Amino acid sequence: MTTKAFGARVARVEDERFLRGRGRYLDDLAADALHVALHRSPHAHARITDIDVEAVLDVDGVVAVYTYEDLTGAMADPLPLLIPHPDLTHGRTQYALAKDQVNYVGEAIAMVVAVDRYVAEDAAARIVVSYEFLPPVVGLDAARAADHLVHDDVPGNLAATSTQATGDAMAAISRAPHRLALDLDIERSACTPLEGRGTVAKWDTDNGRLEVWSSTQTSTGVRAAVAAKLGLDLSVVDVITPDVGGGFGVKVVHPWPEEVLVPMAAMALGRPVKFTEDRREHFISAAHERAQQQHVEVGFDDDGRILGLDVEIWHDNGAYIPYGLIVPIITTTQLLGPYKPPVYKATFHSLYTNTVIVTPYRGAGRPQGVYAMERTMDAIAAALGKDRAEVRAANFIQPDEFPYDQGLIFQDGKPLIYDSGDFPQMLDKVKALVGWDEFAAFRDEMRAEGRRVGIGLACYVEGTGVGPYEGGHIQVETTGKVKVSTGLTTQGQGHQTVFAQIVADELGVRFEDVEVVTGDTRRMPYAVGTYASRAAVMSGSAIALTARSVRRKALELAAEALEANVDDLEIRDGVVEVRGAPGAQISLGTLAVLSNPLRYAFDEASKAATQFSVGDPDKVPVPEGTSPGLESRDFYSPPRSTFASGMHAVIVETDPDTAEIRILKYAVVHDCGRLINPMIVEGQIHGGVAQGVGGALYERMVYDEHGQLLNASFMDFLMPYVTEVPETIDVDHLETPSPLNPLGIKGAGEAGVIPSAAVFASAIEDAEGIVITRMPISPSELYDLRRTHAGSDEAAVAAVEGDS
């Protein structure tokens, strides 16, 4: 079969609807619903001694008020710890409404349900909560010191300590000809989707069914959690994800407190209930990421080849840890990137603080790991006086070494084995794109004009396509249209386009005849979710397998109808044809009719499928092991994760007076296996680079010592505008197909953001001649670094003059 759609730059089918304002987001639903507002803690750490709701009960328009005392059964238990781990010895999760204590500013204490959001907000503000204040633990330094505890029963604020090693790293380092130690820091940041969290619920009293709409990345996970918490059979709960205005990881947690509280209220009140998060709520009560402190020790030879690497990481997991240890596990296992140190040891300590919880944000621990590894590579190059690209090349896994086992266990609990790649070729490509070898001459030109420029390079490997499974369902309608459904959700990635491209080729139908639905448990009740760059690998593979099953069924039906051999048939544009026999053909729509033998005929086409038209009286209309309908459902479960990879390079200019950082050139080379749609992959890269620029240069969550978030608005939390993002991003692709799935693909969703902190630190350091150990970096911080650096140089000169 000739590939027609797979690999083509097909325009996204989703875009016209969105551009015309026809999107249907959570807040567009249930105009008649009651509205929810939460009373949230203004304190980071306190015991609740009393909650007085009397002033709310008589407010006109208030329908109900709930506190922890109103929760019963499983609703009164802590929310789930979604991903347990043997090393997570002190896992703690919050209650849907705070029970005895609050542990971060923004924790939900009471819920008001009213006729509209205005009344609900005003009423929630009237609730009076009395507190006994406790000392807050803010930041990793305070958590590590453990002078105070976030949870009384968690010694040292330590949720977990975990180590993976491939040998005695410190012994290897001590024997190495050269040794270095680095202390690095990445500060807390967060994704900021255009649409915050939101939930709508409707209880059908007559039929005992619950319908929930949620702006989520995992509709099936929300469904399971709601059913468990409310004591309902899974079969009576439907969860639908409408259009979602961005997820980026923050919406993968399930359930959020509101996702169980809103359905609970809808059932109790017998009316639809809605919660939509405002922007401040998102800042103070959703999720953050990134914050880590890192200590790296490395031993290396004269060529810069690493002989031993030891990394210790302190990870801030916030006040609770519902998503387990996924982020620091990814940091310590993905840190190695495209390199092969013979001996490696990594230890992380996951610590509680009185701040918002930490869960995956696009990149999910990888930006921190890449930062540690690439800063180490730059430090080795500087120590040896070597080219930074040359040092990286000396440590690469070679193309003939795949599959390459790093000797570690990845986040999916399976061996960390890279499936394919070609890192030397990728390095050549990115150097050519950015003009690496010509940069010295460019720097000289800029210096002559009084301008200061620097170049940076960062390499990464990204685990994608994490299991355990995804599924697909395909049905060919009697009209010839093809309906496709998969359970994972969509937040703008172009799933309707790429999945249709897969089906068009696998089934032999027109791309325009394929319709894709995602995130609706009524259509696909079994699924996992959209995260970890897994949609194309997991659902794409499941859909491909399903399409092949439908194709086999169609060819068998056509062979009988056309009295031909299956091997002589082909499908083109939805029509089965007999090779070499013009006119001998039958459409998939007609085969859909034939696949469902009926008692009655409703139109001319269906006459062929009535029970009275069966020619052979001994023939069973629906043979054992088959089913009516030209449709199929199949699932894909991977043997282990696929591993995409990439390299970014950037040229920056730093203003000598204002210390502003301007991007002059940005280049990306990326390998995600076979490309389903290069245009969509490039769009993912461009969006990721924009987020990476924000994370490296602007975005930071700033807490004071009392646990108050000081920049919980877009007035204070800086994000890059289009003027700060490179107008042109030079992208090149390298395709090393994965042998682990039927399409040879790997994920691409997080690629653009992963190396950003590392590549900008490298370029700024190159421009300034000042070692960069802390990210993100703002102009004011760079300005202060310059002053500190100048002061240390002056002190060194004075010391030398004094000695002389």
From TrEMBL:
Pfam families tied to this protein: Ald_Xan_dh_C, MoCoBD_1, MoCoBD_2
Q: Which UniProt keywords apply?
A: Molybdenum, Oxidoreductase
Q: What is its EC number?
A: 1.2.5.3
Cross-referenced Gene3D superfamilies, in alphabetical order? Aldehyde oxidase/xanthine dehydrogenase, a/b hammerhead, Aldehyde oxidase/xanthine dehydrogenase, molybdopterin binding domain
State the Gene Ontology terms under molecular function: carbon-monoxide oxygenase activity
Q: Which residues form the Aldehyde oxidase/xanthine dehydrogenase a/b hammerhead domain?
A: 20-135
Region spans: Disordered: 615-634
Matching entries from InterPro entries are given as: Ald_Oxase/Xan_DH_a/b, Ald_Oxase/Xan_DH_a/b_sf, Ald_Oxase/xanthine_DH-like, AldOxase/xan_DH_MoCoBD1, AldOxase/xan_DH_MoCoBD2, AldOxase/xan_DH_Mopterin-bd_sf
Protein name from the UniProt record? Aerobic carbon-monoxide dehydrogenase large subunit
